[in-house]
């Protein structure tokens, strides 16, 4: 990757650089999503990805359909049954500074006629899951996969205590959220693995992903996974019409939701929320890698829509990497 200012590049130079970055990102993506064993830190991946986005934004003609910017990362493992997501499971666009966040807000407001609030949420560092309920009964659970087709992990999800088998109302819904491994469970798991001569997991996110894709449900059950649900494929069956109300209604239905959400009227409120939770990050019992802001009105979310990869009504603000990190080769963790 070069750091030449994009403005100084010709389209040919940009295309050549993008053609080098894409296979690199795809290789890292395979190791991260499919093998649950990343070989570089997330911020390295994020920097290269951001460079590719910048190149493709400046020269839209160089975008290819296979580009990691055009596809939700991840595929499905051959040994697991497949599930088609009728409403795709998307990724999130990301920004790394308050200035970029303000640009996102200005762009969105310039395309929307009405005034609106955001709902601020913690960005839980786990993996996305989808839970299908028919008449209030849990019938199927899946991973995001490539966003269109995920893996059927129903039996494993049934072992997670925070996932209700029956809802408080007989709704037919697809609820989406994050499955994660609490920090304490991650530390204990890696200690056990090292004692048994097994390679430790690189981070709680990969440990959670590996634990959910087990053939033996008892292994998943022993891994102490937890969930926070935050989305629904189609909000029609709910009473609420806001994102903050959706979190309350999901909790009433029996799901575990993250309590640290807050409605923000403007970017100053958002910045205050970010500051607060960035400070709390290391004290939380689970990993967060940023915060997500979402237009709070569900009908407005629907009206704004999505690209092939990300909703246009939400964005993730990514935190800088934590000072103390785990790596595959050098396990260090202090809490
Ligand atoms: P992402 O994880 O950055 O963001 C999208 C995901 O955020 C959603 O799918 C959802 O699962 C999750 N999320 C958590 N809390 C949420 C909330 N409150 N509301 C909505 N969504 C929430 O995007 P991604 O496409 O899953 O993965 C890309 C990221 O994965 C990269 O930014 C990089 O950090 C990491 N990655 C790392 C490597 C590596 O080699 N280290 C490789 C590939 C990807």
Summarize the structure.
The chain is of the alpha+beta class. It has ten helices and eleven strands. Mean pLDDT is 93; it is low at 325-335.
Total of domains: 2
Q: What name does CATH use for the topology of the largest domain? A: D-amino Acid Aminotransferase, Chain A, domain 1
Q: How are the strands of the biggest sheet laid out side by side? A: 2-11-10-3-9
CATH H-level superfamily title of the largest domain: DNA ligase/mRNA capping enzyme
Give the overall shape, derived from the CA principal axes.
globular
The H-and-E topology, N to C, reads as HHEEHEEEEHEHHHEHEHEHE
Can you describe this structure?
The longest helix is centred in the N-terminal third of the chain and has 24 residues, at 11-34. The relative contact order is 0.16. The protein is α+β, with helices and mostly antiparallel strands and 335 residues long. The protein has ten helices and eleven strands. The strands form three sheets. The protein has a five-stranded mixed beta sheet, sandwiched between helices. Helix 1 runs antiparallel to helix 2 (42-58). It is 36% helix and 18% strand. It is globular. Residues 325-335 have low confidence and may be disordered. It has two domains: 6-70, Helix hairpin bin (Helix Hairpins, Orthogonal Bundle), CATH 1.10.287; 82-318, DNA ligase/mRNA capping enzyme (D-amino Acid Aminotransferase, Chain A, domain 1, 2-Layer Sandwich), CATH 3.30.470. The protein has helices at residues 11-34, 42-58, 98-111, 154-157, 183-195, 204-212, 217-222, 243-253, 267-280, 298-304; strands spanning 82-84, 94-95, 118-124, 127-134, 137-143, 149-151, 173-180, 226-232, 262-264, 288-295, 314-318. Strand 4 and strand 5 form a beta hairpin. It binds nicotinamide-adenine-dinucleotide (NAD). Nicotinamide-adenine-dinucleotide (NAD) binds at residues 28-29, 31-32, 38, 40-42, 45-46, 73, 91-92, 94, 121, 123-124, 128, 144, 178, 230, 292, 316.
């Amino acid at each position: 990757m070069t750091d030449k200012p994009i403005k100084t590049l010709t389209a040919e130079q940009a295309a050549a650089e993008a053609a080098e970055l894409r296979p690199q990102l795809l290789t890292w993506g395979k190791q991260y999503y499919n093998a649950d064993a990343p070989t570089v830190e997330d911020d390295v991946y994020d920097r290269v990805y951001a460079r590719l986005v910048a190149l493709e934004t400046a020269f839209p003609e160089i975008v290819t359909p296979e580009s990691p910017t055009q596809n939700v990362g991840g595929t499905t493992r051959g040994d697991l049954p497949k599930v088609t997501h009728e409403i795709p499971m998307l990724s999130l666009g990301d920004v790394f500074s308050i200035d970029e966040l303000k640009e996102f807000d200005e762009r969105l407001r310039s395309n929307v006629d009405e005034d609106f609030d955001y709902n601020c949420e913690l960005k839980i560092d786990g993996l996305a899951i989808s839970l299908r309920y028919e008449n209030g009964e849990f019938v199927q659970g899946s991973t995001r996969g490539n966003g269109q087709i995920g893996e059927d992990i129903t039996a494993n999800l049934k072992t997670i205590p925070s996932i209700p088998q029956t809802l408080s109302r007989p709704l037919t819904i697809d609820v989406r959220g994050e499955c994660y491994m609490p920090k304490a469970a991650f530390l204990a798991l890696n200690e056990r693995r090292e004692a048994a001569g097994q390679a430790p997991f690189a981070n709680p996110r990969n440990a959670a992903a590996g634990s959910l894709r087990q053939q033996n449900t008892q292994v998943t059950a022993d891994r102490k996974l937890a969930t926070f649900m935050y989305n629904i494929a189609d909000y029609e069956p709910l009473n609420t019409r806001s994102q903050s109300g959706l979190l309350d209604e999901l909790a009433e239905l029996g799901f575990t939701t993250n309590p640290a959400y807050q409605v923000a009227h403007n970017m100053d409120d958002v910045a205050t929320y970010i500051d607060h939770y960035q400070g709390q990050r290391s004290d939380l019992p689970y990993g967060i890698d940023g915060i997500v802001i979402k237009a709070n009105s569900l009908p407005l979310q629907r009206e704004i829509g999505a690209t092939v990869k990300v909703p246009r009504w939400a964005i993730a603000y990514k935190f800088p990497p934590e000072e103390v990190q785990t790596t595959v080769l050098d396990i260090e963790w202090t809490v």
